[in-house]
Design brief:
With about 160 residues, the chain is α/β, with parallel strands linked by helices. It has 5 helices and 8 strands.
């Protein structure tokens, strides 16, 4: 097993942490499953031998998937934000999430089939917001009308 990072994101899943981690590892570069830990004994949410914790990375960020049961469902209070450079890259990641049992949301957000939230965010949008002023206002107004972010529309808004 790879050593556990000092700071690790822990994501609570009902029962499918390993399936989710393997999906992320197959879908995103610099992503992998590094360990699958099984429950050593019966507990309220697991039987001995059930997958309890999965160590994985998403774009190099260390994560732990915990099979904790249905008590704490996913919310927008946590999301992965993936910065993209082109419309093609934006489309690829968006379609990977949405096209595999996920669903679209607003302003570049979508959910995977386990309810985990993702922001697929082109860098041009982030740069426009950082620039401030009229450029930021126009880009923000354009974003507010979108589900998946349209890079050309954001670029046009930035130019005015």
């Amino acid at each position: 097993m790879t050593p556990v990072a000092k700071n690790t994101i822990c994501i609570w899943y009902d029962r499918e942490a390993e399936e989710a981690a393997r999906f992320y590892a197959s879908a995103f570069p610099d992503s992998e499953v590094t360990a699958v830990l099984r429950s050593p004994t019966d507990s309220p949410g697991n039987k001995a031998g059930d997958v309890l914790v999965v160590h994985f990375t998403v774009f190099g960020i260390p994560c732990i998937g915990l099979n904790g049961g249905p008590l704490f469902p996913q919310t927008e209070a946590f999301s992965f934000q993936i910065a993209t450079d082109t419309q093609e890259e934006t489309d690829r990641y968006w379609n990977t999430i949405v096209g595999n049992g996920g669903r679209e949301s607003e302003c570049g957000w979508c959910k995977d089939r386990w309810g985990v939230n993702w922001q697929i965010t082109p860098r041009t949008l982030t740069e426009a917001l950082a620039a401030g002023g009229d450029q930021a206002r126009r880009a923000f107004a354009a974003m507010m009308t979108m589900r998946k972010i349209d890079v050309a529309a954001i670029d046009a808004a930035r130019r005015g």
